Amino acid sequence: MSKQQGGDAGGAGRRAGRLARLRAVVADGSMLRLRDAAELLGVSEMTVRRDLTALPSRLACLGGYVFRVEAAGSAPRYALDAENASHIQPKQEAARRAAAVVEPEDSIFIDCGTTMPHLATALPSGHLTVVCYALNIAEIVCRRPDTQVVLLGGLYYPSSVTFYGEETLGQLRRLAIAKAFISAGGVDFERGVSCSHFHEVPVKQAAMSRARHSYLVADSSKFGQIRPAAFARLDAFERVFTDDGLPAAHRARLESLSAAHAGSSVDRARRPGPRRNLQVRETTLNRRAAAPNEEEST
């Protein structure tokens, strides 16, 4: 056996040992906070996440908690944990840019997904009201000082660690939101903006309709991708926050949109239907009308 093979085998053995310890801790059906799991094992939180995705373990990590998966078929279809460990730097870059537009006393909506925790972490100091429906977001903003948190209720969906139901939409209709930060799994110029879960669509659309400003936060890996649940056109957003890794072809397409709409009037109405500015980092693109597709909400 070569030294490299021996090292790989040793690493796999250590990983298996860590997973065995975690299984023992949550064997009674309890949940272990991710940071406590990392402290218990003497490794980083990212190492725990990688362990859970590298080997079949009958364990999952959602919303910042490690827990036992009861049956092989009960694991979430959307690999939230694997997504958490991918494209971290671009997600942080996009999130930091989005957080820069938040001002003290703002009432903001933060969407679900694996980019938004970076936004929640990057929020500036000062009093804020944060509306959310995902546990991994609530866990972060609840620790912020001088922050009023509105966690929308409903039926819990482990696949995206979110809550959804008629009460979710009812709560949103009663709220005034200054800025909505929306995530996406796919951004396509022809087919629009999409995500992996259909139950997220009505929440995203309701938040956009209640917000004075709607922003898309998506790292460059999402461009050119299409997910099954479409919820908006790209020009439904006043600004798009992404990272410097956006491919040249997509950047050129955005620039062509900017040229095509140059000189159009700007309407900063509350609903995402009339014209707005669409800004990609520092580029301003005038917005066309975008009415939500009713079939996308089913």
Can you describe what's shown?
The protein is an alpha/beta fold and 298 residues long. The protein has helices spanning 3-25, 34-41, 45-54, 80-84, 88-99, 116-122, 135-141, 166-173, 201-210, 248-260; strands spanning 32-33, 59-62, 65-68, 107-110, 128-132, 147-151, 155-157, 162-164, 177-182, 186-188, 192-195, 211-217, 229-232, 239-241, 277-280, 283-286. Residues 71-79, 261-277 and 281-298 have low confidence and may be disordered.
Describe the secondary-structure layout.
Blueprint: H1 3-25, E1 32-33, H2 34-41, H3 45-54, E2 59-62, E3 65-68, H4 80-84, H5 88-99, E4 107-110, H6 116-122, E5 128-132, H7 135-141, E6 147-151, E7 155-157, E8 162-164, H8 166-173, E9 177-182, E10 186-188, E11 192-195, H9 201-210, E12 211-217, E13 229-232, E14 239-241, H10 248-260, E15 277-280, E16 283-286
Helix pairs in contact: 2-3, 5-6, 6-7, 8-9
Summary tags:
Rossmann fold; disordered C terminus; 22% strand; three-stranded antiparallel β-sheet; 2 domains; 298 residues; Arc Repressor Mutant, subunit A; alpha/beta; single chain
In short:
The chain has 10 helices and 16 strands.
Net shape: globular
CATH architecture of the largest domain: 3-Layer(aba) Sandwich
CATH class identity of the largest domain: Alpha Beta
The rounded Rg comes to 20 Å
